[in-house]
Amino acid sequence: MKLEFFGAAGEVTGSCHILSTEGHRILLDCGLIQGSRKAEARNREPWPFDPQDLDAVVLSHAHIDHSGRLPLLVKSGFQGPIYSQRASKDLCRIMLKDSGFLAEKEAESVNRKRLRKGLRPLKPLYTADEAVASMKQFRGLPYDKKTRILPGVWVRYRDAGHILGSAIVELWIEEKGLRRKLAFSGDLGHAGAPILRDPTQIHDADLVLMESTYGDRLHRSWEETIRELGEIIRGARHEHGNILIPAFAVGRSQDLLYFMSRHRDEWGMDDWSVFLDSPMAIEASRVYARYAHLYDEEAAGLWDRRGGGADLLPRFQLSRTATQSRAINKMNSGAMVLAGSGMCQGGRIKHHLKNNIWRKGCHVIIVGYQAHGTLGRRLVDGADRIKLWGETIRVAAKIHTVGGLSAHADQDGLVRWYGAFKNRPPVYLVHGETGAQEALRDRLRRELTAPVGIAEPAQVVDLRRPVRVAA
């Protein structure tokens, strides 16, 4: 009976952990490593375990840094079930197919250069068809129902409030009369965020596995964040420019559209042509619509008042095709564009940046975490020039980082969530950079006398005896 860390240990992306009993091996998440080219190249490295030896996968949520290597796992011989919350299953159907499509496009681009150099072509990590095929192994579970998934193994999903279908995973394992409970936070949501409910509090566990993405900082209040967004939008209107918002297709895009609708008059949204320029975000929004029963009370009320989303904004347009996307770039002012990718590493946002970021009247609003090595991180860090498709482009646009929109809990939220455990169980921090993890560890020890460890790659935690980490 043991827990092993194989991803998101000392870093944010690539979530991947294995829980083992004498007879079974369960993989918790199977995420894509994201960031620089060097970091992403690690996705092609051999698995540190045999996929064929796994009995099941338990997925916390659909974001690609938690789910993105599942098609590769299936391609490598995994034949067991993949458990997820029901809404996560529907989102994975969209996101994994898109991830496979992007992998194919990336391989095509790389191979053109390799062939010119006389090198053998690379195969994509997996294809869109392989991603679709992997969905046959998904099994959707509801929130709050304890389910036996293997002999001696039970799982229950609780609402994490991060994106639709995101879950805190409670796992019970039993071996030779010994029983242990693991609570895996997945990604915890930002309390008070739009649309979704706040993260569920858990009160008991023998071991906690907790994310720490923003373990070293506090978010602005929602009131300040809303005021900041309104000021940016009104300022951009006076400068007669466009607004570009690199937005994650799942979660952030829907949150932003909700805020725009809710503050329509206050922000002067009738003056803007708002484009959701992302086929994946459009599909994800349809999934959100199907699961309106998971919304918080305020969002559910707005949804009902606005006719189920049919009249959220007056000049709102869905941009599905490449032709529709290119047409937006003919607008020099009055366009507000939400497009992926959220870290500006690919997708349509790069084309909009190329056509706008050199304009003084342009505003770019960064609304989510930007990993090291990404174009989004370079913009946040103040780059005065960027390179797109080999062309160096001057950054004249105003770059705004609105941290209060994060879908992750901040340090206060993480401490509050752990503080609900009555027995102060040992906790290992994952899914965070070193500074964030150390800050969160120190505060948990200082204020709650919590026994906290920071997970390391390939570390093994023996669950047969009480887990001991430094307090």
Distance between the termini: 23 Å
What value does the Rg take, in angstroms? 22 Å
Strand order of the largest sheet: 6-5-4-3-2-1-22
Shape: globular
| Largest sheet entry | 7 strands, mixed
**Helix coverage percent:** 25-40%
Which fold name fills CATH's third level, the topology of the largest domain? Metallo-beta-lactamase, Chain A
On the 0 to 100 scale, the average pLDDT is 93
Give the helix/strand class. alpha/beta
Number of domains: 2
Number of helices: 14
The first-level CATH class name of the largest domain: Alpha Beta
CATH architecture of the largest domain: 4-Layer Sandwich
Number of strands: 22
CATH H-level homologous superfamily name of the largest domain: Ribonuclease Z/Hydroxyacylglutathione hydrolase-like
Please give a structural write-up:
The protein has helices at 37-41, 64-67, 70-75, 86-116, 128-134, 222-238, 252-262, 279-290, 297-305, 322-328, 349-356, 375-380, 411-419, 434-448; strands at residues 2-7, 16-20, 25-28, 56-58, 82-85, 138-141, 147-150, 153-159, 167-175, 178-184, 207-211, 243-246, 273-276, 316-318, 335-339, 363-366, 385-388, 391-394, 398-401, 427-430, 452-454, 460-462. The longest helix is centred in the first third of the chain and has 31 residues, at 86-116. By secondary structure, the protein is an alpha/beta fold. It folds into 2 domains: 2-217 and 407-462, Metallo-beta-lactamase, Chain A; 222-405, 3-Layer(aba) Sandwich (Rossmann fold), CATH 3.40.50. 48% of the residues are buried. It is 31% helix and 21% strand. It starts with a strand and ends in a 9-residue tail after the last strand. The chain has 14 helices and 22 strands. Helix 13 packs across helix 14 (434-448). A 7-stranded mixed beta sheet has the order 6-5-4-3-2-1-22. Strands 7-8-9-10-11-20-21 form a 7-stranded mixed beta sheet, covered by helices on one side.
